Structures are given as structure tokens and as C-alpha cells.
């Protein structure tokens, strides 16, 4: 297996020439600095330079290498090192690499087998801020020594290491690491929050904690103590005082074991059993923090990710609300939110927000607004107001004191009806049926064949709508009320006819908001592409609005009816009756029709003026069309043109006028073109150097200078 040095030489070559300048050389203006400033072409290909970000994943590297001096020269400028999925197994090899990288800030050792203990006790790695140890199975003693050595560590990744407990010396204040702010602990099979609480004591400045895919069942610390005590009690030998009391003692032990595991005390047992159980409790690590709160060690935590955990109780969410500085929470794919549940996804989000008053962002969304939070809190009150008082959380009383007792929301069902009652009349036969609105007309005719004894192909259905009759017959709105009496006389025995009401306000609403938009849209589609239109308008006073208005009518040939048709088009309110106001209103009325199809404009007086206006309008339409076409063509030319590429601009050094009269500009463009070709690896460095030298020779050629004089 190769060493790190061998992998570097394989990837970046065996030479170790450094193109960078030291700080002393820059400050002293050394000849080396002067040379590098004057030459624009890199002295050495970037391929042979070890970058500041060094990635050597899956290279089977297992050691640093034997030539330490050579390794130090190559890696002295490395700031980020990725050695994931290699063959490292010894920590001394890892630190043997780090000691040659004085500027190292980031180190990724994921999926290297580093389960052995760390023997190194000290070192100077002040620049190292981020350490990734995912899937390394690093031991807790090694982690303890790492955080002691890496005093400035800011971010630590310990995911996928199969930790079932946290074995750190959290009770010793001297082992606390105050610089670490981000900890990733994803995918470790820890089930009890008491173990997670230890991390907070070891890292008191922790701000970001990721516990995704950890099977944590509850934030209750008693669960940890109960489980560990139960496991230890199972290991106790049965206590017997005599052979005839063995069975009785065994039964007594089992019952007292259950009581102890629930209440953490053993009562009515022998003094020996009490003494043994108390000893177990004192020696159980998790029991030492049983009196703590779930947030006691996380006083600075701002971000918490518990996606994919096994939390299933709202009481755990209420414990999260007690974290003093928690601002962002990610909590998804938990049993608490899995179906079947009695609430929707939107309701779950509202219940979360209402329980977490200090959380500002939830599950990666935007900042929760004041309006959204208030809506969530009100929904929370309404959700629990019908629940028994014993099922209401403490947060309910707090929100009631803020918003008061709310009335329940009215349940409004906006689902469209699927069936309607329709009265069918055929001669003297009258029948009311419930009709499915999703049936076709032909299917409805088929259903009516048994009623009217007519084939569906020969049957014609007419829909009688009183509102439409009022519009088409130009009746007064109040006259529709009197038409209702006709229905009552025609159908004296029908309850629907006797209860029918059709006041003018109701029929107005149906016409304005039901029929009018449909008729207006139908008219617009009908006249949009007509080639011959007569536009008529008239100015009048609207007595209700007390404003002048311009009513527009059109006459056109209706191909559906095969005749000339006159239709009312629209109206435009006029503030004044000046000529400019009239022309503005006139132009607004023409918006909905094809301007080019206007043959005549009719109005009482002012005909010459508006004929001229129509001519000007047609010229304006033509000009706008030409301008739009020209803009589109120019935009397409610019889109497809190579002028937008930097290389095209740089190639102007080949322009004879530039060569003859703008020597400085020609040299700058040449450098730009060669630099682009070099960075794209289209030309080797040697060819570029020759081109630069020959071009400069060309510019200073005597014959060229003589031809330039003749040309000028």
C-alpha cells in the first residue's frame, strides 16, 4: 500500500519546485519577485503544485512516508486534507502527517479503521478547526485525548461509530472543551438522552448538535436509570436464608425488583437486598445525572437535529421548549408524526410551533413570522379545548392566558355538489329527478327515454334559466319577482315552486358575477381576429357614479348567425371632457379588439378628428410592430453572437489596425488570449512562450514600421 508521499508524487509529480513567494521575498523585493511579476505565464504547471485543498480519497494510503523533509516541502501550504476511505490504522501515522502541515485547518479521516488507542499526549495544532471521524470506530479514550490536544477545535464529526454510550469524563471540569461549537453524532445506536447529556458537559459551548438517525426513545432521564438498574439487578444472585424459604425469597426478590426499577427504591425487602440495590444505583453512571434536566448541559445550544429518532410523545417536544437558547430545530420522520394520526401535516407543524415559542426556524424552513405563530397558537387552543382537562398540556393554559378562550371555528364544506335536483317538463308530464352533474348530456337523454318515450338521438333538451331570460329579453330586474308567481300557478302542488324566491339583488348577483364574465369572454374571443369592425361610442353622464362615461359598441359580421350583429363592448369613466380625455378613453375602449380591423368609427360629431386618430393609431401600431421585431432580431443576434466570449475580444490582437497603431493594446489582448488558452489546457506553456516572443518581435520589425508609415 502506498504512503502519503508516494500518492502525492503519483498525482502531482516528483519535482518539488515551489512557485509561491515567501513573505520575506515579497517584502525585500528580491529578484525572484521581480521576475515573477514581469512574466505573466506561470513558471510551473498547476498540475505539479500541491494545492491548499488536498483530496486523496480511496488511495489505499496507510502511512506518511519515510522522507519527512520531502513531505514537509510538499505539504507546508496544505490547509484542508481529505484522507477518507484509506487504510490508516495507527494514530501515530496520522499525527506524523499533521506535524508536516503547519497550516492545516480541516482534516477528514472518515472510514479509516482507527479503533486503536491514541498514545500521543501533546502537540501544537492550533490551526486545526474541523475534524471528521465518521465511521472510524474511534474509541472514547482516543476522543478524550484528541479534544485535549486539539484545543482550538471548532467542529467535530463522530457519526456512524456504533456508540451505545458516551464514555467521557464529563464530571471533571478540567476535561471540558470550551471551543467546540458543532458536533455531528448521526447514526449512533444511543437510545437514552442521559448519554447525550454527557456531551453537553464535555462541550459546554456547543451551539449545533446533530443527532439524526439515533434511536433515542425519549428525553426523560429516568428511562436511562431504569434500564441500567434493571440490567444490573438481573445479574444479582438469588438470596436464600434456608432451603424451605427459597421459593418464597425468590418470589419476593422478583416483585421487589420490578418495584425498584420503577421507583428507584426497594421497600419491604431484606437489609441485604436494600444494600445491594443502593450500591447498584450509586455505581450506575447514568443515575448520577437523574436529578438533572434534559437541557441542563446545553445552555448555549442553538441548533438541534433529531430527524429519524424514535421520539413518540409530545411531552418530549415540551422538554425541547425549555432549552434556553434553542432557535432552530429539525424534527422529521419520527414515530410522533407517522400515520395513522388524528391530524394533518399542517396541523402537526402548528402544534410544534405552538409548543416551541423560542424556536425561530423549523425543519429548514424560513423564519416563522409573528402571524404564522399566532395562527399556530390559536389552532393549538382550539385543538385542545374539546379535550379532557387531564389531556391538556401545560402550554394550553399559557396560551389561553395570552389569547383568551376562543370560539370554535365554523366547519365550512366547499366541496362541490355531485348531484342536483332538476325538474323535467314534457307536455303535461312533470317529474323531479336527482341528476349526477358529471354525466354527459347524451347519458341524461338515455335516462329520460323511459319517461318521455322518445329516442335519445331524437330528443332535444332545453334549459330554462330565469336570469338568462331576463338578460336576453331585456326585462327589468324587478319583473323577475313577478315571474315567480307564474311558476307557482303552473306547479301548484310542487313544494319547490311554492318556496321559490328571486329578488332583484339575487338576480343582479347572478348576472354580474355569473353570466357577465362568460358573455364578456365569449365576445372578446369572437371579435379578437375579425377583419372588419365598426366601432361606435357615445359620451354620457352616469347618474349613480356622477361621472362622465364613454360607452363602446361594435358592429361586425357574425359568422355563427350569418348576419350583422351589434354588441355592447365596454364603458370607460372619464374624469373630464377635454379632447385629451376623450382620446384616452377611446384608446382604452379599443384595447379588446383588433385595431387593424376597424373600418369606421361612429359618434355624433367630431368625425374628422377621430378619422385622423384612427390613421395615427394604425401608424403607431405598425411602428410598434417594427420596433418589437427589430428588438427581437437584435436580441437573437446578441444571444448567438460569439462577441460575448472573452476569447473573441482578446483575439483582436490579430487586427492589422491594432497591430499598426495600438501596440500596447495589441500586447494586452495577446496576453489575455494566451492566458485563456493556457488555463483551458488548449496549448502547452512552451508554445505560448514562443508565440509571445514571436509576436513581440513582429511588433518591433523594421519592415512593419515602414509599411505602417506608408499605410498612414
Descriptive notes:
With 712 residues, the chain is α/β, with parallel strands linked by helices. Among the domains are: 150 residues, Leucine-rich repeat, LRR (right-handed beta-alpha superhelix) (Alpha-Beta Horseshoe); 69 residues, no CATH class; 55 residues, no CATH class; 108 residues; 68 residues, no CATH class. It contains 26 helices and 16 strands. The strands form three sheets. Strands 1-2-3-4-5-6-7-8-9-10 form a ten-stranded parallel β-sheet, with no helix packed on it. It has a four-stranded mixed β-sheet with strand order 15-14-13-16. A two-stranded antiparallel ribbon has the order 11-12. The longest helix has 34 residues. The protein is flat and about 110 Å long. About 11% of the residues have low confidence.
Give the key terms.
ten-stranded parallel beta sheet; Leucine-rich repeat, LRR (right-handed beta-alpha superhelix); 12% strand; four-stranded mixed beta sheet; alpha/beta; 712 residues
Sequence-ordered SSE layout with sheet pairings:
Blueprint: H1 4-12, H2 23-28, H3 31-38, E1 53-55, H4 68-75, E2 80-82, H5 91-98, E3 106-108, E4 130-132, H6 140-149, E5 155-157, E6 182-184, H7 193-202, E7 208-210, H8 221-233, H9 246-263, H10 271-283, E8 303-305, H11 314-320, E9 328-330, H12 345-355, E10 361-362, H13 370-384, H14 394-403, E11 419-426, E12 429-436, H15 441-452, H16 466-472, H17 479-490, H18 495-498, H19 504-527, E13 533-542, E14 547-558, E15 563-574, H20 579-589, E16 598-602, H21 607-640, H22 646-650, H23 656-661, H24 663-679, H25 685-699, H26 702-711
Amino acid at each position: 500500500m502506498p504512503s502519503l508521499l508516494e500518492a502525492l508524487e503519483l498525482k502531482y509529480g516528483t519535482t518539488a519546485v515551489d512557485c509561491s513567494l515567501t513573505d520575506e521575498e515579497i517584502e525585500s523585493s528580491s529578484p525572484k519577485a521581480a521576475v515573477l511579476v514581469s512574466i505573466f505565464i506561470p513558471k510551473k504547471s498547476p498540475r505539479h503544485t500541491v494545492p491548499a485543498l488536498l483530496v486523496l480519497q480511496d488511495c489505499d494510503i496507510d502511512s506518511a512516508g519515510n522522507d519527512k523533509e520531502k513531505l514537509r516541502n510538499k505539504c507546508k501550504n496544505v490547509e484542508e486534507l481529505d484522507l477518507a476511505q484509506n487504510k490508516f490504522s495507527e494514530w501515530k501515522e496520522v499525527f506524523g502527517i499533521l506535524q508536516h502541515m503547519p497550516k492545516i485547518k480541516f482534516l477528514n479521516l472518515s472510514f479509516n479503521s482507527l479503533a486503536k488507542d491514541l498514545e500521543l499526549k501533546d502537540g501544537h495544532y492550533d490551526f486545526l478547526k474541523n475534524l471528521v471521524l465518521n465511521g472510524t470506530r474511534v474509541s472514547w479514550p482516543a476522543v478524550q485525548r484528541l479534544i485535549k490536544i486539539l484545543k482550538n477545535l471548532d467542529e467535530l464529526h463522530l457519526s456512524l461509530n456504533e456508540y451505545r454510550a458516551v464514555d467521557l469524563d464529563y464530571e471533571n471540569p478540567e476535561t471540558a472543551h470550551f471551543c467546540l461549537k458543532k458536533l455531528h453524532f448521526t447514526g449512533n445506536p444511543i437510545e437514552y438522552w442521559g448519554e447525550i447529556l454527557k456531551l453537553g458537559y464535555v462541550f459546554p459551548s456547543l451551539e449545533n448538535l446533530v443527532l439524526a438517525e439515533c434511536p433515542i426513545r425519549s428525553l426523560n432521564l429516568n428511562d436511562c436509570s431504569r434500564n441500567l438498574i434493571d440490567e444490573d439487578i438481573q445479574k444479582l444472585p438469588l438470596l436464600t436464608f434456608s432451603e424451605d424459604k427459597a421459593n418464597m425469597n425468590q418470589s419476593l426478590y422478583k416483585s421487589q425488583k420490578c418495584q425498584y426499577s420503577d421507583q428507584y427504591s426497594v421497600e419491604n425487602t431484606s437489609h441485604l437486598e436494600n444494600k445491594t440495590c443502593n450500591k447498584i444505583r450509586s455505581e450506575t453512571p447514568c443515575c448520577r445525572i437523574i436529578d438533572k434536566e434534559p437541557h441542563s448541559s446545553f445552555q448555549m445550544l442553538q441548533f438541534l437535529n433529531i430527524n429519524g429518532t424514535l421520539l413518540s410523545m409530545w411531552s418530549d417536544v415540551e422538554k425541547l421548549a425549555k432549552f434556553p437558547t434553542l432557535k432552530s430545530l429539525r424534527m422529521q420522520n419520527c414515530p410522533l408524526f407517522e400515520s395513522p394520526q388524528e391530524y394533518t401535516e399542517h396541523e402537526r407543524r402548528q402544534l410544534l410551533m405552538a409548543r416551541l415559542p423560542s424556536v425561530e426556524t423549523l425543519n429548514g424552513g424560513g423564519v416563522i413570522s409573528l402571524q404564522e405563530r399566532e395562527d399556530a397558537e390559536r389552532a393549538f387552543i382550539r385543538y385542545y379545548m374539546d379535550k379532557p382537562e387531564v389531556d391538556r398540556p401545560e402550554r394550553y393554559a399559557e396560551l389561553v392566558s395570552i389569547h383568551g378562550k376562543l370560539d370554535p371555528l365554523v366547519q365550512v364544506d366547499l366541496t362541490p355538489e355531485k348531484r342536483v335536483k332538476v325538474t323535467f317538463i314534457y307536455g303535461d308530464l312533470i317529474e323531479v329527478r336527482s341528476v349526477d352533474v358529471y354525466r354527459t348530456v347524451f347519458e341524461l337523454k338515455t335516462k329520460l327515454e323511459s319517461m318521455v318515450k322518445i329516442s335519445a338521438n331524437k330528443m332535444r333538451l332545453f334549459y330554462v334559466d330565469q336570469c338568462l331570460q331576463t338578460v336576453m329579453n331585456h326585462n327589468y330586474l324587478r319583473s323577475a319577482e313577478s315571474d315567480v308567481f307564474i311558476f307557482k300557478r303552473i306547479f301548484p302542488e310542487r313544494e319547490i315552486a311554492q318556496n321559490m324566491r328571486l329578488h332583484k339583488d339575487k338576480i343582479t348577483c347572478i348576472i354580474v358575477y355569473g353570466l357577465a364574465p362568460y358573455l364578456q369572454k365569449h365576445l372578446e374571443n369572437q371579435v379578437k381576429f375579425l377583419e372588419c369592425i365598426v366601432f361606435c361610442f357615445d359620451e354620457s353622464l352616469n347618474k349613480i357614479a356622477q361621472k362622465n362615461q364613454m360607452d363602446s359598441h361594435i358592429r361586425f359580421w357574425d359568422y355563427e348567425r350569418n348576419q350583422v350583429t351589434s354588441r355592447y363592448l365596454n364603458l370607460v369613466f372619464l374624469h373630464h371632457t377635454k379632447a385629451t380625455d376623450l382620446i384616452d378613453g377611446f384608446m382604452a375602449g379599443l384595447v379588446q379588439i383588433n385595431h387593424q380591423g376597424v373600418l369606421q368609427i361612429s359618434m355624433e360629431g367630431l368625425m374628422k378628428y377621430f378619422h385622423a386618430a384612427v390613421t395615427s393609431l394604425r401608424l403607431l401600431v405598425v411602428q410598434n410592430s417594427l420596433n418589437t421585431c427589430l428588438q427581437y432580431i437584435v436580441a437573437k443576434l446578441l444571444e448567438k453572437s460569439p462577441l460575448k466570449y472573452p476569447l473573441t475580444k482578446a483575439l483582436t490582437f490579430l487586427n492589422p489596425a491594432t497591430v499598426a497603431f495600438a501596440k500596447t493594446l495589441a500586447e494586452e489582448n495577446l496576453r489575455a488570449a494566451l492566458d485563456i488558452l493556457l488555463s483551458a489546457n488548449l496549448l502547452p506553456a512552451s508554445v505560448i512562450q514562443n508565440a509571445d516572443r514571436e509576436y513581440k518581435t513582429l511588433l518591433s520589425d523594421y519592415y512593419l514600421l515602414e509599411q505602417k508609415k506608408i499605410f498612414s
